[in-house]
Hints:
The protein has 214 residues and is mainly α. It has helices spanning 4-7, 11-32, 35-42, 46-52, 56-79, 86-103, 105-114, 126-147, 157-177, 194-210. The chain has a domain at 65-210: Orthogonal Bundle (Tetracycline Repressor, domain 2).
Amino acid sequence: MPSTTFTKLPAAKREKFIKVAMEEFASAGYEKASVTQMVKKLHIAKGSVYQYFENKKELYFYLLEQAQAKRQEYLKAVLRNPPESFWELYVKLFESSLKFDYENPEMSSLIMNSAYEKYAEDLGNLMLVQKKKSLDFMQGLLEREYLRGGLRYDVDVSTMAFFASNITNGIWDYLTIKNLNTEKGKKGKLEIPREKVVGILEDLSKLLKGGMKS
């Protein structure tokens, strides 16, 4: 948790600190992120950072928590009034997550990178923790559909959740390969129409629903 010294900073100074630190961790990853680089950009003494946070690890987890909370705001906007169909909900949630990625590139990178932080001893089993969060979220959605009779009964829900969660985590790679990433310097603007992005998501949800068998 940040110190009271940090929370009492003027809002503009606090937000600038968060922005610079977020950019550093998002681009360099936890191990290579440099507090020295952060303070150079902020024009503050290095000791100030340790007045705000006990160490680099505490700062990193604070930023990750902020990024995840922001992402949850996007998802909750859908979950407050979810469509009846799980498959329509699946598409809308991913579309909402994709919107978060485009509008908050540093936060998005920080979250995605955290799922691969397996070499930093300071962070413990962060990679597995992040994957478990994704799995638990998907299982919660599927259990709701299972109780409604919308899923097969011969496969355990947790197994289906593992399958669906891994497919979902791989969609960003697929979109990148298909050149659906944002144009350089134009955050939030898609290279192809939004309808095509949604079309790909709908096709992938159909595969989840019915498989590839004709």
